[in-house]
Specification:
Number of strands: 0
Order of helices and strands: HHHHHHHHHHHHHH
Number of helices: 14
Strand content: under 5%
Distance between the termini: 7 Å
Length: 293
Amino acid sequence: MGVTVQSLRSGGSPSALRRLFSWLRSDLRAAVSLTYLLVLFSLSLFANVVASHSPVTQSMDMLAPPSAIHWLGTDDLGRDVFSRLIHGAPMTLYASFLAVGVGTLIGLPVGVMAGYLGGWVDGLTGRIIDALLSFPSIVLAIAVTGALGIGLTNSMIAVGIVFSPGLARLIRVQTIVVKNDLYVDAARTFGMSPVRIVLRHILPNAIQPFIVQVTLLLATALLAEASLSFLGLGVQPPQPSWGQMLARSYGYMEISPEQMYAPGLAILFTALAFNALGESLRAALDPTRRRSD
């Protein structure tokens, strides 16, 4: 069962919803991943209702095991781990979407412009992209974070800047392929402006691999947030995030290893859900599969 470009453009129409539900019924991996992510978003929205304990209130009951009062135990400062896990989800998801959003805002227009204009613009853009991609991503993110200042928003803007060259290169290649099609030449012949050609013809037909890559990068951004928070460059105490929880529990790994399970498994399952959803989208948007169906 393939998902067509028209179904993506038709937004909330009944036919588009039917195609979506039909796709989810035919792809168990996508259905499970999407259900998990929707549950996670719901928990994030209603964190104050779901978690009865304050995520920042300290107590003398430190490193307590799971119990009826503290479902996942307490950390080294006596704070409820379950509450911190639930309240940390919005920050972690915010970080992932912020990084991918920044990467998209930079990479998409740059890649489309380079691919459509070609010539020296394409050559110069390609050299800049190659230069940025030559740096190790986490090192470049740390360097940009150091320039912008420590904090979650700044660190994820840095990650988004790191993502942008790869996204720009992907959409550039797709733009080059699509702009040479006959219907684009016909649009030029009828006097359509370059902006309208890009928006109405090139972008809708070149965006499928970009959408898949953005979905996969959400998982990468999640791990990047965890890494930067682990290094103290992301979410700052006492505000919880999964990476920050993992960093703090690392110091007590020998005497209370269960402290690492909750944030570690949350990061693992969420990253797997984003990756699985991206793989399912890749298969659904594959034109060769649509032809075979």
